[in-house]
Write a structure and sequence with these properties.
- The protein is α+β, with helices and mostly antiparallel strands.
- It contains 10 helices and 20 strands.
- The strands form 4 sheets. A 6-stranded antiparallel barrel has the order 6-15-19-17-16-20. A 5-stranded antiparallel β-sheet has the order 2-1-5-4-3.
- Helix 1 packs parallel to helix 5 and helix 8 runs antiparallel to helix 9.
- It is elongated and about 115 Å long.
Amino acid sequence: MADLQDDKERTLRELITVLQLEKLARAAKNKDELAFLIVNDTHRISAYEQAILWSYDVTGRVVIEAVSGVARPDSNSPYLQSLVRFIKHIAKHEKSHGVYEIEEADFAVSLKDDWKQLGLCSLWCPFLDKEDSITGGIWFNARAHWQQKDLTRMEFIVDAYSYCWHHVNKIRYTWRKRLLALRSKLLQKRIRFSAAIIIIAMMFIPVSQTVTAPAEVVAIKPVILSPPVDGVVKEFHIRPNEVVTAGQILFSLEDSEIKNRYEVGEKELDVALADYRRASAKAFGDEKSREEVDLLKSVVEQKKVEVIYAKELLQRINVRATRDGIAVYSDESDWVGKPVKVGQKIITLADPEATELLVWVPVDDAVSFGAAARVRGFLNVDPTSPVDAHLRQLSYEAQLSPDDVLSFKLHASFEEGIKAPRIGLRATAKVYGERVTLFYYIFRKPISALRRYLGL
């Protein structure tokens, strides 16, 4: 009797939890709030490893709306791309209009290997509209097979989720139905023929090739300042992006080691001079001392050179500006106390009025550019006000960009009369190439990929 009573209480708690989830779903104010509730809070009524909410957009494409435990799902990840293929296949299955556990036999031969690698027990939960059409759904992954009691609870809560989802996406699905109706009309023979003629004629419209690539505002002919000797950065005497003048001290290196070397060298020089003078004084009456004079003289010369060298190093500890401009570097905390080497870039001296746009065009996107191709830069700080420029220099060989993408480096000069943007601003540049037909503009990349694939 006690066990029966416990089962009743457990069942009652589960029912209350389901009703609470339904109430929360109906209270959701927008799509994002409802999606978060569906993929994360459903765990209260059934244990699962992962929940994925998906839907169809207005064009009928499968879209991953939310994934449990993930703030923003990456639709380009291999796992989600495989999942989209699974969803498209299962949606065509005869059992797709109901909640059921997916089996290997439900997949075509081409998808079975991918399904085996998944290694999970998946539950199919579709969203149905009033016409009994699938508009989306939830994909649950679990380690163990789903029990009948889990399927019963899921059928109830998924029906509530489906109603709430259609409510928050009411306008979206209305437009989807309109587009589907329009598509069915376009399938008529006469309309298809007219559309084909129009599309073929449009393929001959001349357009300019364009490439969109990341860019940055940089200085023209900047001066790179590096430490004159190997050492450790002691302190900076200026702030980042501060205006400096020629001869001003910018930063200093630790001088303790060089100072010690200079002091020790002076002591050794004094000792060598004393030995030399003593040997010179004895040389008049001592044959052996006369033999040591030349040797001690060379030692004195060597110590003098070492002292002079150490003194020069001490004078070079303070690195000074070689010209007027802005001192550009990351931050003082990134350098102080860090060992640096000769030739290592620390500060860039730049003229704030002499700037240009540095564009990194990926190799796969490169097209033929004219000698002074037009460039438009959309600064991240103000993308609504583009700045115009023209191509000044194009690198002959590709190199790795700061994003580790093999790219061509383009230098674009700003047009006259345009106020030069601040150095360091990021932008998206649109580079205009030669004019080609619309057909070539659209199919250039597919044709290139096909040639690489076929080896033509």
